[in-house]
Design goal:
There is one protein chain. A hairpin with a 4-residue loop joins strand 6 and strand 7. Helix 1 packs across helix 2, helix 1 packs across helix 3 and helix 5 packs antiparallel against helix 6. This protein is α+β, with helices and mostly antiparallel strands. 40% of the residues lie in helices and 22% in strands.
Length: 249
């Protein structure tokens, strides 16, 4: 979708709404309380299982008499839920949008991106807000807890090229090990990221995605399958390369 030609001069601020923050905290704390109650219900059994993670701690909890044991487990579950909410929200993106500049903040990171550098803005699913440069490489990517409709309306109103999905989606190809058109470094990073995805190591997967972007390899995944595209148009290998599966929409 193209930009709006009549962009306002006053900057707009995009940040996580108070309602969404409250909902996140409430949801995580309530789920944590439920997990704590469930832990209390199975604590005696769990304490008897050899090799159970945190078995010593669970044994201590199992010995606390009710109602104190149940209250303690519920409180521990609530504390766990609160920590999940805190970690989720601490890296939430906040964006100041002007007709000629975007100031992007996520956690302790701050990035100023000139409008002239941006070729596309889009939401990657509901998880990430992504800015692409004029070479189609990723300028910035951050966990998105913003209201999707507000993001779209704000960027279009300020004249930015906002898209409902990655505008280069058709260029992605399925990654398999040791592709000849990729460097040994890129293949190694993709292999490491594949392992991180399979182990649900989200932080490692995000770090490896950023490392790949520095090499001009843009990556996305569908479940545990990785798909990639190159910022610079790849040279055709002698004899041609076998066609790769396209990424699902």
């Amino acid at each position: 979708m193209g930009p709006n030609k009549t962009a306002p001069s006053k900057p707009s601020q995009l940040k996580v709404s108070t309602r969404r923050v409250a909902a996140m905290w409430a949801t995580c704390v309530v789920i944590g309380a439920g997990l704590g109650w469930a832990l209390r219900a199975v604590s005696e059994w769990a304490a008897s299982v050899d090799g159970m993670p945190l078995r010593d701690w669970i044994s201590v909890l199992a010995k606390v008499p009710d109602p104190y044991g149940t209250v303690l487990c519920v409180l521990l579950g609530m504390a766990f839920g609160a920590e999940v909410a805190r970690r989720t929200l601490k890296d939430s993106v906040a964006v100041s949008v002007k007709p000629d500049l975007v100031i992007w903040r996520a956690g302790k990171q701050t990035r100023r991106i000139a409008r002239a550098e941006i070729s596309a803005v889009y939401l990657d699913g509901v998880d990430d807000l992504v800015f692409l440069g004029t070479d189609t490489g990723e300028l910035a990517r951050a966990n998105n807890n913003l209201d999707e409709d507000a993001v779209k309306e704000t960027f279009l109103r300020h004249g930015y090229p906002f898209f409902d999905a990655d505008p280069h989606l058709e260029q992605y190809m399925r990654w398999v090990e040791d592709l000849p058109e990729l460097s040994a470094t890129a293949n190694a990073l993709l292999k490491a990221r594949q392992k991180a995805l399979e182990e649900n190591a989200a932080d490692d997967a995000a770090e490896l995605r950023a490392d790949l972007a520095k090499l001009g390899v843009i990556v996305r995944q569908n479940d545990d399958r990785q798909f990639y595209r190159l910022v610079a148009k790849p040279a055709t290998a002698e004899g041609g390369a076998a066609p790769a599966d396209k990424v699902p929409a």
